[in-house]
Records
---
Amino acid sequence: MRLDIACGRLPESALELNFADAHPGLSPEQAALEADRCFYCYDAPCVEACPTDIDIPRFIKAIASDNLAGASRTILQSNILGGSCARVCPTEILCEQKCVHTAIEAHHAVRIGALQRFATDWQMQQKTHPFQRAASTGKRVAVVGAGPAGLACAHRLAMHGHDVTIFDRHDAPGGLNQYGVAAYKLADNFAQKEIDFLMEIGGITFQSNATLGENITLAGLRETYDGVFLGLGLAGVRALGLESEFAEGVLDAVDFIETLRSRNLSEVVVGRRVVVIGGGNTAVDAAVQAKRLGAEEVTLVYRRGAEHMSATEVEREWAQTNGVTVRFWASPSQLNVEDGAIRSITFLRGTPDGGYDPQNALTLAADMVLKAIGQVFVPDPVRNDQILVENGRIVVNETGRTSMPGVYAGGDCTAGEDLTVAAVRDGRNAAEALHDELMASNTERADHNG
């Protein structure tokens, strides 16, 4: 008996439409009207809610004044990946949730994310870089991981005049933005365009197919470079812990999304009946994309209630409006396999006291099961180094410095919010601290020689 899994369930024209930009940008007229709604608050609460501390009233006022160069520079000097963050970050629970308009009955928040996209898109279309690289310092820094944290760190270090080499296991830089986010969120190859824009600062080299602990080591990097930044992300995926977990048709959602981002859409296989297990953004992205690839039935199952999901209410509603059935309080208990392939999956339903009833089961037919129950940091590449790891993450101080001299870290491999914008902040702040350290060592050497 063969699985009902196939590629090309929809014609290419339908796939192109399904994976076009989910939320097109504002027109100049729309942007001007939206910018005029801002109160330009002093000590604005929206700024406090932004992990990268963008001066939001300032950039919105610049848009209202038709000063798009000033608006984009204000954004990008705090967040060089402001374009992708405007598209993928949950602004509804960050800056926009704190907008004072929300305290006024029947008013909705200023569309800060959309205005940020408008300004940064304008800048990228100018084919010029808004920042200049400082004179070369002669210092060399290795950045391991080409995700948002690593890219933000590399750009800030390059601005200060350091030479940066980014190492990553993938063929192209970008990390989650390139391989782990729904294609309709970063449509039209935006992730690569933003990376090309970032690289225009100069002084940054990318080395692909480089994996820490395999063909590069932290000890080797410390010998060759003056400083190191680790933006390793979360390379491991939690397992269900069920028998037959590796049966045909049972996949990790992150692998499914990466395949979708790295191939022609018509070549990506999807089941006719897909079950996604999880309650985060990865689960939503996998479920919606499976539906848009042509799956007839897609069910997202979460073990707890809606209020416990890490995916926002906006994301959950997005899944439902895209034809995904969402079920709560159901925990996977058995993968039902025939001839080595998944046929259905059984869940135990939740009870009022928060437990699960073995006598109350739910079985869903499935040609494909996508696991999205969380990612974890894999410490193996740094296990033999002086890097302190606690509670499954690299330990850093307030500047991002690890327990190993000259080595900094940031993003998802350290404790904190698992958000793209938080990773950008970590990379930027660590770059500033590492720059200060490198310049201090120059001063000490000069004093000693003098």
Note: Residues 420-449 form the longest helix (30 residues).
---
Amino acid sequence: MLWMYAGFIALVLLLLALDLGVFHRTAHVVSVREALRWSSFWISLGLAFSVFIYFGYERHWLGLGLTPDLMTVAPYTVEGVGLAYNDGTSATVKYITGYLVEKSLAVDNIFVIAMLFGFFAVPAIYQHRVLFWGIVGALVMRGAMIAVGAQLIQRFTWIIYLFGAFLIATGIKMLLLKTDATDPNRNLVVRLIRRLFPVSERFHGQHFFVRAGSIASHEAATPGAAVEMDHVVDAARPGTLLATPLILALVMVEFTDLIFAVDSIPAIFAITGDPFLVFTSNVFAILGLRSLYFALAGMVAKFRYLKVSLALILMIVGVKMLLAEWLKLAVGRHFNLYLLAVIVSVLAAGVAASVVAERRRRPSG
């Protein structure tokens, strides 16, 4: 199994290297058309990986499908022990369900990222760079959280019910409470960076840090990109290491992803306890987040009922986590397929309701 993880991580690193080093080497404003093309590529790649999942688990490549999964009713069950294992079909359904749930929850993250970029006045030409490194950090953080979560579930099966209750509570909170925009300047991590480094009041190209007095003329402050912040320093002593507003935006993107991961990681464990399925579906969902942001950033406000759909999805997977044993008996081995159908229906209903409401809101004629 270690070789399987190593191979997958190598594939992800290759994709990231091609993305930043070849296709987006030069900073530029990502158009909606370009973003849609890249979104189609990442979504197609994520769904195509399900073919590998099917054959890998069906034929047990490098030990795939030999990890017990508490969230399944599979053909392979150890008599007297009750340990269930995934075959190709069950693994594929869980991977696609997990991918869809994680991708849906990632859309909610776009609302916050758009707000952060607006607050820090990040120029559109540099937003891709911030999101790229934000995703790299998110992959590392989520990989560590998944590893810890998998060990907890294997050793303490009762934690499944804790995760389920947490997801239901989070969904109810998302439905009932309004999420007002907060001031990133008050964030503890941002304040710590300001204590460690003086902060430039302007952007200096696509640099996260610069040396005072060493900025080349063509990398001088981006016109119109200044932002008012506390403790800004532009006339620092030559040679002083300065943080730019770009690193503050990156820190906040990483911080918000950490907060969202607290919800999304238990959600994926409600679908499967197999660490490889959890990790791969999570990674592919995150890889396409950057392109999805540029495709939807200007339209997120129009999907007013999407947050309701996401809240319902969290509650649904939470209930599924609490009643997994009962569902196995009542619905049978295909209950994860039914869960996938329910999630797709809830998402489609949220999007359709948003579109109808937006059309009614527009003045006629």
Note: The CA atoms of residues 166 and 318 lie 7 Å apart.
---
Amino acid sequence: MKILITTNTIPDKAGTYIVLKNIIPYLMENNEVTILTNQCDVDIKCDNLVQLSTSNIFSQYYFTSGLSKLLDDGFFNDFDIVHAFEYPLHTTDFLTLKKSQFNAPLLISTHGSLDQFGRFPLNFLKKIHNYFMLRYKNNVSNYIACSETEKKSIVKCGINENKILYVPLGVESLKLDFTKRVGKNITYIGRLTKTKNVELLIKAFAQLDNTDANLTIAGPDYGELPMLKNLVQKLKIENRVSFTGWISEKEKIELLSKTSIFVHPSLEDIFSLSLAETSASGVPVIAFGGTGTSEIIVDMVTGKIVKEKNLKSLRDAIDQILDNPELINKFSENGRILTTKKYNWIQTARDLENLYSKLI
């Protein structure tokens, strides 16, 4: 098969980047894979790379030039499958609107981008975008959900359940050195956006009984960093809270090796790659229930699911685990075994490959 994968979010080095970097090498074993993306540094292995110029307007809205020329030149008809990653991107919208002009089935992996809304004016623009683009939902062969939670959220947006396919993601267990786990260290790794709810984590941390604990917040800023730093100063916990910004793989391994608890405070995530990877690597995890995180964590086996979505419940859960070294060891051991078995990149690639074959 000749597979075209489109995305403009590779520079973020976040969710889609991680997925593609892990599944494409396996897809290439039996198929020819082309990536269509923006002009950026691409370190993802593929058979062919096509890069177009883009402009970054309204933060994450990318407008790509050259798509019409590719369409006129018959570029998209060279493929058996066209798989678009991320929903509110110009390339994905263009392919949806122009579907009648190329033959290959069009699939969209939304990765939670269909129904999540940020701050004004992005939330307003997103609502306008979805109102218009969902009129063309029948042009899409299938929407791919990476968790049952995402599947439900896509249905709520008006997509027929029969058009939604569930393909779970994978994880890779990191080799951590837990001899460095000294003291009480709490870690969050992820984007600093409103939907990640890091503000609540900082407030809960400030109220811990374990006043000798430290908090490290790692990840790229998506508009929240100034507010979060001001909050830390206001709560007078600057000496116990660190912001690292984006970290490399080597830095992530070093940080997680020292981590007692990984806290993921998001209330909206459909699937957190960082949470799954951390659990599979043997770090105890805490997250709120009622989201895709509940599918990753086995409560009180691989981590702690906080059922009440409020500051007090999160604070109490963190204190409970910090005060219980035996629980930390239990979550650590079980996570390495159970989470690794549950999520596997090879299986993700094979599931996609089987899906492509059926559509063809």
Note: The longest strand covers residues 32-38.
---
Amino acid sequence: MAQPWKIIEGIATAEGLLELRQRGDRDFLIMIGSQVLMNSMANRSEVVLGQSGCGHLKGTAGARVLVGGLGMGFTLRAVLDSLPADAQVIVAELNPAVRQWCLGPLASLTGNAAADPRITIEICDVANLIRRCATDGGQTRFDAIVLDLYRGPHSKSHHHDDPLYGSRAIENMRAALKPGGLLAVWGENYDEGFHKRLCSAGFSVTTERPGRGGLRHVVFVAQLKPTLKTGKHPRQ
């Protein structure tokens, strides 16, 4: 017989009761209302997301990465494992309770990724942080942006005004990335409209469906073309 779930903590939010539940040493759920947001026993797409977003930065000195959504820390762990020792990682998380869970009962799942000295956790809306970076004249641009939010792009995302997946938000992400920068986005299912908006914004886009059976989420990997330096040619 399976062990019963124990509620570790519940936090009231505008979208319902946010709960951390546990049974056994490594079996955790994060729920909001009756919806399961994260399951510690099913994290393959989160790991692939972090690896796909930052694997190319292993040898990039001083790499700067933005992670949107802390969750249980699996994506963050994969990001950190893909980066050099001098990297800087900003994590945008809406709820301070999630940060405390990752530093407390969830820490052993990820080797205490949330306490890594390379990271700074900001309690904020990642869309606002991206917008701020996009309008600061390029002072805080990122080599990669990795979005691991419990609602990924979907067919009902407003094509222009969605704060994360609409064309305006994509332009902000483009402006917040360095030339050649990469955007990796988790989705529950493939969304053709989001794919097309990324391409229209100048990204080269591929998708991955991690795993071989059961529920297979999608990872969008979108890269900007690097800016080529050009010089004036002497007249002939």
Note: The two ends are 84 Å apart (CA to CA).
